[in-house]
């Protein structure tokens, strides 16, 4: 399918690995010019060299997306993106009793405030151009919270509710705002979570992974490229009538009919 977005400019935050990288790759394959981002400069540049093989213009911007300097660098590379993919690392597993006030504030900044700040910066030029696509990578835990990921679930649920109103206020200008809620995807973050579980329980990594996979109706973890393809579709011209929606991509894990 021609996604109709060749030549569009995209910023994909936190995209040197995992789900962000998969979104960047799918957008590059659709012909977009893509700004990719991560804190580790060497790794980011190696990834940029690889993505350039798609033929797309790829601009690596090293920096922490949660900081004003990191955000400034992103917009210096691409002042008026047509597409913004909000992504960032999630907080680690922790008993909520252990969270200090500062840890709570940091979690809310990382998984709620940053996406709002970036949206504030891109939205008016998108409205003026009558085209904009914003996709927020949140988590399946927004819909079905997991004990230990309470801060992640809470901050992302806050972002979801915040943006729900904003989405309706800009829909008339062909600017859409949607949310992707990943379940288990085969990324470094997922594998390090499995490693932690294995250590805690004193079992081998492979056993912990097999047990986790057995809980997923699809009986496998998701492939990042499956996630990237959905993201690129939501950014396409075909998806202009989809806004304010949360799409769970979890191999059937969430058991509800709705
Ligand atoms: N994978 C899953 O199964 C799953 C499930 C539910 C939710 N999620 C959520 O989806 C998001 C992406 O997860 P993932 O599995 O793709 O993670 P990942 O494999 O750990 O990749 C994270 C990416 O973000 C970059 N990054 C992290 N912090 C950054 C920062 N402050 N500024 C700029 N770049 C930053 C990392 O590069 P650097 O380290 O070099 O900065 C890396 O490129 C996370 O919020 C995660 O909680 C994932």
Structure ligands:
NADP nicotinamide-adenine-dinucleotide phosphate
Number of helices: 8
What's the rounded overall pLDDT mean?
97
Main-sheet strand order equals 3-2-1-4-5-6-7
Strand content: 5-15%
Helical percent range?
40-55%
Question: Biggest sheet, in brief?
Answer: 7 strands, parallel
Cα-based radius of gyration, to the nearest Å: 18 Å
**What's the helix-strand series?**
EHEHEHEHEHEHHHE
Beginning-to-end CA distance, first to last residue? 28 Å
Q: Which class do the helix and strand fractions yield?
A: alpha/beta
Q: Work out the number of β strands.
A: 7
Spans of at least 5 consecutive residues whose pLDDT stays below 50 are none
**What is the approximate shape?**
globular
Report what the structure shows:
- This protein is of the alpha/beta class and 258 residues long.
- The protein is built from eight helices and seven strands; from the N terminus they run βαβαβαβαβαβαααβ.
- The protein has a seven-stranded parallel beta sheet with strand order 3-2-1-4-5-6-7, with helices on both faces.
- Helix 1 packs across helix 8 (224-234), helix 4 (101-129) packs parallel to helix 5 (150-170) and helix 6 (188-201) packs across helix 7.
- It is globular, with a radius of gyration of 18 Å.
- The structure holds NADP nicotinamide-adenine-dinucleotide phosphate.
- NADP nicotinamide-adenine-dinucleotide phosphate binds next to helix 1, strand 2 and helix 6.
Summary of the model, kept short:
The protein is an alpha/beta fold and 258 residues long.
């Amino acid at each position: 399918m021609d996604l109709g977005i060749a030549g569009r400019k995209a910023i994909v935050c936190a995209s040197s690995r995992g789900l962000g990288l998969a979104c960047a790759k799918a957008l590059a394959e659709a012909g977009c010019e893509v700004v990719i981002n991560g804190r580790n400069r060497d790794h980011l540049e190696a990834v940029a060299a690889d993505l350039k093989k798609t033929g797309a213009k790829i601009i690596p911007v090293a920096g922490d997306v949660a900081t004003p300097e990191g955000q400034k660098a992103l917009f210096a590379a691409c002042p008026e993106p047509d597409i913004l993919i909000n992504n960032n690392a999630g907080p680690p597993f922790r008993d909520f009793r252990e969270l200090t006030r500062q840890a709570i504030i940091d979690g809310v900044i990382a998984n709620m405030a940053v996406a709002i700040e970036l949206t504030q910066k891109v939205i008016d030029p998108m409205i003026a151009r009558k085209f904009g696509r914003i996709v927020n990578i949140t988590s399946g835990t927004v819909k079905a919270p997991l004990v230990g990921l309470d801060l992640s679930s809470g901050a992302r649920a806050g972002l979801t509710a915040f943006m729900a109103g904003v989405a309706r206020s800009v829909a008339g200008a062909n600017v859409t705002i949607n949310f992707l809620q990943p379940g288990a995807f085969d990324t470094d973050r997922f594998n390090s979570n499995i490693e932690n579980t294995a250590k805690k329980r004193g079992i081998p990594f492979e056993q912990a992974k097999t047990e986790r996979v057995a809980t997923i109706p699809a009986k496998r973890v998701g492939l990042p490229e499956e996630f990237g393809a959905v993201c690129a579709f939501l950014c396409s011209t075909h998806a202009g009538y989809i806004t304010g929606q949360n799409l769970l991509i979890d191999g059937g894990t969430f058991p509800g009919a709705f």
